[in-house]
Amino acid sequence: MELNQYIDHTLLKATATKDDIIKLCNEAKEYNFYAVCVNSCYISLVKNELKNSDVKIAVVVGFPLGANSANSKLFEAEQGVKKGADEIDMVLNLGFLKSEMFDAVEKEISDIKQAIGGKILKVILETCYLSNSEIITACKISKAAGADFVKTSTGFGTGGATEEAVKLMVETVGDTLKVKASGGIRDAKTAKKYIDLGVSRIGTSSGIRIVTSSNTSTNEHTY
C-alpha cells in the first residue's frame, strides 16, 4: 500500500472554518488520502465536497475528553453514520477505565459498534494518560466490545503516539484489531516507523508533508 493510503487527513481544531474544511477535502482528493477526519458539525459539508471520490469520512465522537455521557456518545455516533460518516473515532472514557469500571467502558464501546453496524469503529485510548497495564486493558476491552481499531491519541492530550505505546498495542491486539497511530506524526520517517511496527492507519494534519518529503522536520505543534 502506498503511504498516502495509510493517512487520515485530519483537522479537529475548534477554530476550523468552513473554508478550512473545504481545503482539507480538496487536499485529500489531490493526494488520494484514505480518509479525512473531522468534527461532526462538518459531516454534511465534507460529504458534499468528497462526492465522486474514494476518500472516506471519519468523524470523532466524545472528543476530545471521552467523558461525555454514554447516551450522548451513542447518539453522536448514530447521527454521524446517518449523515454519511464511514468511520467513527470515539474517545474511551478514561475516568471509568482508571476507576476499573471495565463493564461500563466495554458496554459504551459495544453499544456504539452495534449502532453503527458495518462502519469502522476506532477507539481512542489517549495513551499519554495511561500506564502500560491500562493500555493493555483498554486494548482487551476494545477487542471484547467488537471495535475495529485501537488508536493512540486525540492529539489534544499531553502527548501523542510513542513507539512504546504502539508496540504494546500491536502486541496486545495481534491480528484481531488494527492500530491507528496519531498525535505528533509530522514526517515520512516517523510515519514509516509506525507502519513498520504494524499500524494500519496514520492520523495526522501533516499528510501532505509526509507524502511529499521523506526528510522533513518541524517544531510546529501539529497533530
Automatic annotation (TrEMBL):
Annotated Gene3D superfamilies: Aldolase class I (3.20.20.70)
GO biological process entries: 2-deoxyribose 1-phosphate catabolic process; carbohydrate catabolic process; deoxyribonucleotide catabolic process
GO cellular component: cytoplasm
Pathway: Carbohydrate degradation; 2-deoxy-D-ribose 1-phosphate degradation; D-glyceraldehyde 3-phosphate and acetaldehyde from 2-deoxy-alpha-D-ribose 1-phosphate: step 2/2
Native source species: Aequorivita xiaoshiensis
HAMAP family on file: DeoC_type1
Major location category of this protein: cytoplasm
Name by which UniProt lists this protein: Deoxyribose-phosphate aldolase
Locations listed in the record: Cytoplasm
InterPro entries assigned to the protein according to its UniProt record, in alphabetical order: Aldolase_TIM (IPR013785), DeoC (IPR011343), DeoC/FbaB/LacD_aldolase (IPR002915), DeoC_typeI (IPR028581)
Catalytic residues identified in the record: 89 (proton donor/acceptor), 151 (schiff-base intermediate with acetaldehyde), 180 (proton donor/acceptor)
Function of the molecule: Catalyzes a reversible aldol reaction between acetaldehyde and D-glyceraldehyde 3-phosphate to generate 2-deoxy-D-ribose 5-phosphate.
